[in-house]
């Protein structure tokens, strides 16, 4: 994640003095590059020590490192604006070989996964899992490009025996949501396909001789 995006993401959770620093950087990123820590502190109305602590909070060693990160990001943004054909995908340029492009894409996608994982609130995530586990059926809502992601999640849930609904029409989404209820699932609430019954019983520690006889491998549970 870029340093400016990182600051934007952290902004609501920052203390008052740190919010002053964050807002000043977001409003004046180019001006910050030419400032010393004392100048920045005076203009932002904070202490120099607050600037150092803020820099460390967003993963920098200090204010100089923060300025370097901002400078690099502004340079990438300016390159894209002035020569979009040379900056096709962040650090990817038209001069890169196919192997280099593939390596850069792999690095960026891995970094995105790591950053996303860091921001997961696992207490809330567990509540979501429990809600799905206790639902009679699950409605997944997505529009435009997110509609494809919603369909993909719906298919994955159905593979493990969870009845899920996904609709593109807004009116159908609202009508479906109004009919949702919380109910502990039983075998009758599932699609009666052998594979789905087997996945459900595996998930809940249940197994029968007929199930184990028909299936010689454990199903993968994907959420």
TrEMBL record:
Lineage, top-rank taxon, reads: Bacteria
* Domain HTH rpiR-type span(s) in chain numbering: 1-77
| Biological process, per Gene Ontology | carbohydrate derivative metabolic process
Q: Under what name is this protein listed?
A: MurPQ operon repressor
The record, for Pfam families, names: HTH_6
Where are the stretches annotated Disordered?
A: 204-223
Which SUPFAM superfamilies does the protein's record reference? Homeodomain-like, SIS domain
Gene3D superfamilies reported in the protein's UniProt record:
Glucose-6-phosphate isomerase like protein, domain 1, Winged helix-like DNA-binding domain superfamily/Winged helix DNA-binding domain
- Residues of the signal peptide: none
Q: Give the GO molecular function terms.
A: carbohydrate derivative binding; DNA binding; DNA-binding transcription factor activity
Q: Which organism is it from?
A: Serratia fonticola
Which InterPro entries does the UniProt record give? Homeodomain-like_sf, HTH_RpiR, RpiR-like, SIS_dom_sf, WH-like_DNA-bd_sf
